[in-house]
Amino acid sequence: MSPAKQVRFWLIGFALFAVALWVLSGMLLPFVTGLAIAYFLDPLVDRLEAVRLPRWLGTTLVLLFFVLVLAAVVVLLLPLVQAQVLLLIETLPHYAAIVRERVEPLVARALEEMSPEDVERLRTAAGQHAGEAVVWIGRVLRTILTGGMALFDVLSVLFITPIVAFYLLRDWDRLVGSVDAWLPRMHAPTIREQAREVDATLAGFLRGQATVCLALGVFYAVALSMAGLNFGLVIGLLSGLLSFIPYVGTLFGFAASTGLALIQFDEWWRVGLVVGIFLFGQAVEGNVLTPKLVGDRVGLHPVWVMFALLAGASLFGFLGVLIAVPVAAVIGVLTRFALRQYLSSPYYRGSGGPGGPGGPAVEGR
Question: Residue 112: which domain range?
Fold first, then answer.
């Protein structure tokens, strides 16, 4: 088969796969979630298998332990989170009144220095942008509820995901072997090399970043609660969870906790304590947690991760958020491979090759 026919074959196959993914996106959530759980837990099952434990028994024990830990966390945290959410609903009007009392004099003073025409333009622009913001928020919530968090999807995740995760985890090595046997023999070594690089990137980023999010969430929740900040537990946990998106978790937690501290506390040192908690957490994350647990060689730039998450959410809803980082890792690995091929090709070096006419000399490649 000629190279042109091979390229055409794989392009058609990729197009069919993309169409199938688009058509079936509404039902893939439990399967993608089960695949993600199996990928995360496979190293633990491999270790149990290395000590002569049957694969099915190791899978059962690891999944049972995972479910028990998850259930224990939910049982312990759910009452606390529920109590703080109810307290927030009760005290929200009081906080709104405090903000209005503090902001209204500043707004009135600013309006006194503006001309009537400027005031009218400001009111018109504010009303227009407020309406657009409400429409945008409603559209986002509707997309989330219909694209990945509907009641049927939640039930399917709860009941189907464990079954999918069990069978995938039990047969993981067999599935990998089958896929390896299907590779085109001429290109199998190259594909295996790129697959190993994708696996290293995903393992380094997903498992490492999940550990970073867990550590930050626990630290922020405990530290803010000890600082006496109302709703510190909820803000801290959300900050840790959102830390999966680079910088978003820290910015959200910093803005929410600082704004709440300004409303709640009269002493400036207590506000400074809340600010110091997030500055310390950001310093530990950037200098200790991320370098140690994630590393600098995963090949996923923070901007690329944010773009992938937003693009995935826009295209496939909650399912797109789940598959965004793996797809970004695959695209990143393939892009680096294509770049290496380009740098070693006559398109980059010139028709004469390295040092020849038509291209500069390239050393060390």
Answer: 28-179
Task: Average the pLDDT over 126-141 and give the result.
Answer: 61
The tens digit of pLDDT for each residue in 24-70 reads: 777 777 888 888 889 888 989 999 999 988 999 999 999 999 999 98
| Spatial CA neighbour of 191 closest among 179, 203, 201 | 179
Does residue 96 share a domain with residue 173?
yes
Long-range contacts of 295-303 (CB under 8 A, 24+ apart): 295/204, 295/208, 297/204, 298/200, 298/201, 298/204, 298/205, 298/208, 298/329, 299/201, 299/329, 299/332, 299/333, 299/336, 300/201, 300/205, 300/325, 300/328, 300/329, 300/332, 302/246, 302/247, 303/246
Q: How long is the chain?
A: 365
Tokens of 286: 């950037």
Query: What pLDDT is attached to residue 1?
Result: 61
Which amino acid is residue 110, in one-letter code?
A
Last residue of a domain, one of 116, 151, 179: 179
For the segment 146-165, the average pLDDT, to the nearest whole number, is 68
355: in domain:
no
Q: Give the integer Cα–Cα distance in Å for 274 and 269.
A: 9
In a domain, 48, yes or no: yes
- The CA distance from 179 to 245, in Å, is 31
Predicted confidence at residue 361, as pLDDT, reads 47
Same domain membership, residue 203 and residue 174: no
